[in-house]
């Protein structure tokens, strides 16, 4: 399984995908907020979302798993 992990600590501001959705490489899947800046999180590869591990408003640390692909 492939995963998307957080590149920094921050708060989940928006989730742009849902479980079962196909995404392509480079597609924005999530928006983090850190130090009052919005940081888009992009998928590094194409695939189908199996599970979203976070919710809007959750605080995440660097390296935390955000999304899992099938």
TrEMBL record:
Keywords: Biotin. The keyword S-adenosyl-L-methionine does not apply. NCBIfam families: PRK05889.1 (NF004547), PRK08225.1 (NF006079). Pfam families: Biotin_lipoyl. InterPro entries: Biotin_Carboxyl_Carrier/Decarb (IPR050709), Biotin_lipoyl (IPR000089), Single_hybrid_motif (IPR011053). Signal peptide: none annotated. CDD domains: biotinyl_domain. Residues 1-70 form the Lipoyl-binding domain. It comes from the Bacteria. This is Acetyl-CoA carboxylase biotin carboxyl carrier protein.
């Amino acid at each position: 399984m492939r995963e998307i992990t957080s590149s920094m600590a921050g708060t989940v501001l928006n989730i742009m995908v849902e479980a079962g959705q196909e995404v392509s490489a480079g597609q924005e899947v999530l928006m983090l907020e850190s130090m009052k800046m919005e940081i888009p999180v992009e998928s590094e590869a194409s695939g189908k979302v199996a599970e979203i591990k976070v919710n809007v408003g959750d605080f995440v640390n660097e390296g935390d798993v955000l999304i899992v692909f099938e």
